[in-house]
Specification:
GO terms for molecular function: protein histidine kinase activity. It is an enzyme of class 2 (transferase). InterPro entries: HATPase_C_sf, HATPase_dom, His_kinase_dom, Sig_transdc_His_kin-like_C. By secondary structure, the chain is an alpha+beta fold. Helix content is 30%, strand content 26%. The protein has five helices and seven strands, in the order H-E-H-E-E-H-E-E-H-H-E-E. The protein binds adenosine-5'-triphosphate and magnesium ion (MG). Adenosine-5'-triphosphate binds next to helix 3 and helix 5.
Length: 188
């Protein structure tokens, strides 16, 4: 399955550059704040001085949006979406990921995901939504994005206890943040 997902993620156009992590999370949160229709409270909790990450900025914001939209769909009566991010240092061993990374976590207070479903949610076209309401591509985009950034996507969920999706993105420290446009020349 992983190979299948990797092939899928490689089809996405990508233009990685070093970005300000907090900036992009706030931009995405702004965007989904408007699409959550006010029923859902959004709490944003970003550690100061988050390390920059090297990602495709558009894919990053889309991935955050896809995860937030799932939280919205899971909480039709309202609830809480917590967006948090912190710098972490991962031990070598368990996964190929080691060293400095930024963990970006979206947690909702929805009904959670049954165990039998949880193992399939990253599969392209896997959806439990009614025909016409979901294509099953949201989380596979998020998964492909995280892999392409050299990171990983994790999901934890238990019925009755909500859902938590975590992006682990390798820190691009030691490199300056690349700006969209050169800084304006302030000399007169
Ligand atoms: N926060 C969540 N709470 C409960 N179930 C979830 C959550 N996020 C994902 N799921 C489950 O995982 C499935 C796959 O999610 P994914 O985002 O890939 O597709 P989708 O939301 O069904 O469709 P699309 O994102 O293309 O509109 C969902 O159909 C749903 O069953
Ligand atoms: Mg979705």
């Amino acid at each position: 399955m992983t190979e299948h997902l990797l092939a899928f993620s490689q089809d996405l156009p990508t233009e990685p550059k070093v970005v300000d992590t907090a900036d992009h999370i706030r931009r995405a949160a702004d965007l989904f704040g408007r699409s959550l229709q006010g029923r859902i409270r959004i709490d944003i909790n970003l550690e100061d001085d988050l390390w920059p990450v090297r990602v495709d900025a558009a894919q990053f914001e889309l991935a955050l949006l896809n995860v937030a939209l799932n939280a919205r769909d899971a909480m039709p009566e309202g609830g809480l979406l917590e967006v948090s991010a912190r710098n972490v240092t991962l031990d070598a061993g368990r996964t190929r990921l080691a060293g400095r990374a930024v963990a970006v976590c979206l947690r909702d207070t929805g009904p959670g995901i049954p165990r039998g479903v949880l193992g399939r949610v990253f599969e392209p076209f896997f959806t439990t939504k009614a025909r016409g309401e979901g294509t099953g591509l949201g989380l596979s985009q998020a998964y492909g994005f995280a892999e392409q950034a050299g990171g990983a996507l994790r999901i934890q969920s238990e019925p009755g206890k909500g859902t938590e999706v975590t992006f682990l993105l390798p820190a691009a420290s030691d490199v300056a943040v690349e700006q969209d446009a050169p800084a304006p020349d302030r000399r007169s």
